[in-house]
Amino acid sequence: MTKKDIKDLVQASYTKKNLDDKKVNKIASLLPRSELKKYIKELKMQEDKKKVHIAIPRASIYNKSKQLFLDIFPDKDIHIEENKLLMLGAKIKYADMVYDFSLERKLDDFLDFIDENYD
Prior knowledge:
alpha+beta; Glutaredoxin; 2 domains; 4-stranded mixed β-sheet; two-stranded antiparallel sheet; elongated
């Protein structure tokens, strides 16, 4: 079974943009183990494309900027996580991409730059 066939099965697992458990179970019962692993992996990737995870230092920040996140990521499920270790900034995970806008990351980048250029 080709990768395109697996993607077609993943698309067939949805009913009106929602994952249909009955279809998933039916497809999973018909696939051999090696193809089932590929199917599950592709299904997880498809579900991750529908979600955005945002880590911020305080939940009250999200209340003030909620519309901004909804404008940037339309038609996505936005999951907010409060992370007290983030002093300033945010971490955004969308599909397989992670955007780190935290103060800690900026300081680490700055120190790496100094180490590379001023030894």
